[in-house]
Write a structure and sequence with these properties.
Helices cover 46% and strands 23% of the residues. By secondary structure, it is α+β, with helices and mostly antiparallel strands. Helix 12 packs across helix 13 (303-320). This is DNA-binding transcriptional regulator YafY.
């Protein structure tokens, strides 16, 4: 894109004392005619570019002038400008900082690049929560974020099932997953996950803690999430699916898990139905999930899931006859 090329030209001129049109054209992989037009475009935006004709002439920036976008690629500059202030960062107390960065980048972007960023902002938007699901109420998210930033211990009151417990934590990080905030914290030497919406009270303590030098939040979360998913898939369920059931399975169960199960399945039988092995939760939950497939599924085993499915179907029939 031309706007990206203009920023690349700006950085090239800033890194060199002087360069000829031919050298700049070669560096940016454009024709000399295009380079003349790009230099004129920079000059039109107010960038003090001087051109000197003659044998020893060339193109250079006015001595002492530098862009304040050092180290940013053009794509990075566009991303910062177009990002605005995502709600997630505002909830963490970073809204003002992002607004300030946005204003600084905006003030230094050449007009063509600023226009491109505005186009991006109008065409792409991130909305983290899943459909048909409200965001969690996270009254104490900012308090936990402050404790994370300052490496300060915190005492929390946490709702668990039908009771509440108190914990003294070393808050290590916060994770936003599908619109839900989770706190990753160390307590009693173990690292655990807490749903922020279930925290009913926070007291920030005076004691600071040493963050584990080998702790990587993203890596730990990925490993912990995979382990959690495996723990839920404790029942192997064998089912038969009609062609309609095959198509519907990824919308009923976890899409990745369903897609992999369908890949591992054999070819359809003579009647067009396909046998599939699924790793699901305990029998009652598994039967409830598969009910969404209605008449497009037959549960073969285990008996407990088949019986739970049949009982639920029987109750539905009795209620509607």
């Amino acid at each position: 894109m031309r706007s990206e090329r203009l920023v690349a030209l700006l950085f090239t001129l800033q890194s060199r004392r002087s360069a000829t049109i031919a050298e700049l054209a070669t560096a940016l992989k454009v024709s000399e005619r295009t380079m003349h037009r790009d230099i004129a475009a920079l000059q039109a935006t107010g960038v003090p570019v001087w051109t000197e004709p003659g044998r020893n002439g060339g193109v250079r920036l006015v001595d002492g002038w530098r862009t304040r976008l050092d180290g940013l690629t053009s794509r990075e500059a566009v991303a910062i400008f177009a990002m605005g202030v995502p709600r997630a960062l505002t909830e963490l107390g970073l809204g003002t900082a992002v607004s300030a960065a946005h204003a600084k980048v905006s003030a230094t972007l050449p007009a063509p690049l600023r226009e491109q960023a505005q186009h991006v902002a109008q065409r792409f938007h991130l909305d983290a929560p899943a459909w048909f699901r409200k965001e969690d109420e996270t009254e104490h998210l900012a308090d936990m974020a402050r404790a994370v930033w300052e490496q300060q211990q915190a005492r929390i009151t946490y709702g668990r099932d039908d009771r509440t417990v108190e914990r003294v934590l070393d808050p290590l990080g916060l994770v936003l997953k599908a619109g839900v905030w989770y706190l990753v914290a160390r307590t009693d030497g173990n690292i655990r996950t807490y749903r922020v919406s279930r925290i009913t009270a926070v007291e920030q303590l005076d004691e600071q803690f040493e963050r584990p030098t080998d702790f990587d939040l993203a890596g730990w979360w990925q490993q912990s999430s995979a382990q959690f998913e495996r723990s839920l898939q404790c029942v192997q369920v064998r089912v038969r699916l009609s062609p309609t059931g095959v198509r519907a399975l990824p919308s009923v169960l976890d899409p990745d898990m369903a897609t992999q199960a369908l890949k591992d399945a054999g070819p359809p039988g003579p009647d067009g139905w396909t046998e599939v092995e699924l790793g699901l939760e305990r029998p009652g939950i598994a039967a409830g999930q598969l009910l969404a497939l209605g008449i497009e599924v037959e549960i073969l085993e285990p008996t407990a899931v088949r019986a739970a499915f049949a009982e639920a179907a029987r109750q539905m029939y009795d209620r509607h006859r």
